[in-house]
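Phosphoribosylformylglycinamidine synthase subunit PurS
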Amino acid sequence: MYKVKVFITLRESVLDPQGKAVQNSLHSMDYNQVEDVRIGKYMELTISPSDKSVEETVDEMCSKLLANPVIEDYRYEIEELVGQ
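Structure:
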């Protein structure tokens, strides 16, 4: 079994209105040292071994469903669960 942590963020070229709203709120609370906020998604998946490599499986899932490849980037970390 594998635990996969998936991090999805908007591409740098894409405006992030939600991040801008959070930044403005932080500034209104006197956290003026915050220069930029980008909002993203985080997911944890538990995956059983299969015919495909875990990397290939996760790449397929991210590009087909979990992330929008037009406006989002993704990265992931894979941890093998021992004793599962």
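The domain at 2-80 is CATH 3.30.1280.10 (Mth169; Chain: A ,).
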